[in-house]
Amino acid sequence: MKTPDLRRVDAHEKVTGSARYGADRVPADLAYAMFAVATIGRGRTVAIDTAAAEAVPGVRLVLTRFNEDELRGPGFLMGGGFAFQSLQPLLSDVVAYRGQPIALVVADTLVAATEAAELVRARYEAEPFAVGLDDEGATSVVQEEALPWFPDIKVGDAESAYAASPVQIDETYLHPAQHQVPMELISSVVEWQGDRLVVHEGTQNAGALRHGVATQLNLDPADVEVISPYIGGGFGSRNALQPHIGPLALAARRLMRPVKLVVPRPQTFHAGSFRPVSRHRIRLGADPSGRLLAALHDAEHQTSRHDLYPAMFTEMTSRLYAVPNFGGRQRLVQTDVQTPGFMRAPMEGPASFAFESAIDALAYATGQDPVELRLANDTATDPVTGLPFSSRHLAQCLTRGAERFGWDKRDPRPGSMRAADGSFVGLGVAVGAHPVLVAPAVARMSAAADGRVTVGVDGHEMGQGIRSAIALLVAEDLGVPVRDVVVQVGDTRIAPQHLTAGAWGTATALPAVHKALRELRKQLGTGDTGTVDVAAAVRATGGGATEVEVTSVGPGQPPEMLDRSRAGLFSAAGPVFPDFTAFSWVAHFVEVRIEATTRRISVPRALCVVDCGRVASPVTAASQVRGGVTWGISQALRESSEVDPRFGGFLNTTLEEYPFVVNSDIQEIDFDFIDEPDLLLNDVGVKGLGEVTMIGAAAAVANAVFHATGQRQNRLPIRIEHVM
């Protein structure tokens, strides 16, 4: 797909190295921190010997315990708090999981801090631990009983309808634990400016970080600034306050020096959240033509002992098709790990692998073409609520994708297609959806006498291109060059900075910016449409600049949600709104080749067709699709976080040992957008894109592998030994 010649607005800064990330800041008299971590899977520390660490030249502090009157627990984000987990290390002798920090070393140099942290020795009282779903000691709870505000989705009588169905599919699928491994490591620079705490960190949630650390240290949130203009990849790993900020701030206050922490890659596998392992039983009931009569999705996934991280798998699978009877039960399995969290397409990625693999099996069981079966079960109405979808062009995604991909050339018989070199060829299809969520936002906009327009709004730039989308909206609306638009995000001095995640960043920021543009035009007296000579319009007002501030909330959201956002609390709404249900939709088509002798699997081409509402920024949208599909291929063929059954924690904690696809694995990724504005959702017509591009990609790969081999793949990643 050809896109307009529009560069990312931050491209020059990034390629020249002038973009500044959290740990790039080097203030005067900077000290460096490093954690020593627990080496047991569960238990408590009996004694910690810090003598050798304190003897390292340049070491200034070795801290093993804080009092609760100086450092409080931050609260779990999904439980009304601010952090990725409720557990705050260094407050007690309890070791909840391997890799948990047990001491903080601060030194004049990074080398000294690292050396000293490795010299900290602890004596433990170890306890039995569980790190897998089926491990002895793992405990299981029914989610809707433990978390009644996350009830199971039930429509009709799914069990009875399934039992009476002429065609039945009953399969169980396993999805591994995975880590986000963004390029930028977990890192922060904290410094006190008098009584004011300033935090430079790559975060997706500056508001929660601000209010969370204020809660922990008993500060007025007004005395905390969080500055995060750029993030070197988040993917969910930076969704909330992380447990190092409070201890760093206390260390900086004791030393009266700024302190920097860059968590080493191996420690990041335990210092932040991760995608938990999950297991899915999918049962589909249909008539002989493939028309769905019932669907059941029973799922369980891993959580920690100290927090219940909710499962939301069925929120999507219940909406993919016109299923009159849907049911399922979601269970949480408590294990000895840090609290899991969000990772790109957090629930929808594993859920789509399981559900769309079962749909593919149904197509073969009924002798139907996999594309035609999906089209025959399409719906314009939400099967769960009965509300219309705000927009749904999934059928168009499928038909356009099938034509572009050459689906009609596919021989439906498994194992029937071979390449010239003898490799087995398989073609697979899958669909996906991601709920549209919208958060409250504050937008400030100023027009200057030199013609520049500055926009400050809730949002974080983590590589997805939110700056470009905002700048393009302003430039197109006013008819000004993109270079004359300055965008400020990720800064609590500008706006509250609600969490940017779940593909709601654009759908949250752009409606607020659009509203600010209407107010700015009103103040400038330029009318609602048409090109504006900004410099002349500002001069005509008699001032040096014209400034406006607006607020926005999602459809049906009460104004009080803005107060929650200002307090750093999770405030997003959707996908069910008062008059409609909103999702983004996608269809994936994939070709795999499996070498006849080595059985190595490759993906020579993939096609992704997306319904994300209006495409706000074509260049960054194209980047999002390529990244999402690449990640989906990696999910299908490479990624798995392996647990250590001997000592707890994760084993493959380096980029050398955590496999994911690299440049040589990626060949042709084609894409297309329906590009139909969703004006029921907001005046700009945007939905969400970043998450949905990955959802269904792994299922399409797995379905293509079945077409190539006749072997159904019920677990990820698919390795050579699985297709021998």
TrEMBL record:
Domain of life from the UniProt record: Bacteria
One protein family per Pfam: MoCoBD_1
SUPFAM superfamilies on file: CO dehydrogenase molybdoprotein N-domain-like, Molybdenum cofactor-binding domain
Keywords from the named record: Molybdenum, Oxidoreductase
UniProt keyword DNA-binding, yes or no: no
Oxidoreductase keyword on record: yes
Annotated Aldehyde oxidase/xanthine dehydrogenase a/b hammerhead domain residues: 16-128
InterPro entries: Ald_Oxase/Xan_DH_a/b, Ald_Oxase/Xan_DH_a/b_sf, Ald_Oxase/xanthine_DH-like, AldOxase/xan_DH_MoCoBD1, AldOxase/xan_DH_MoCoBD2, AldOxase/xan_DH_Mopterin-bd_sf
Protein name according to UniProt: Aldehyde oxidase/xanthine dehydrogenase a/b hammerhead domain-containing protein
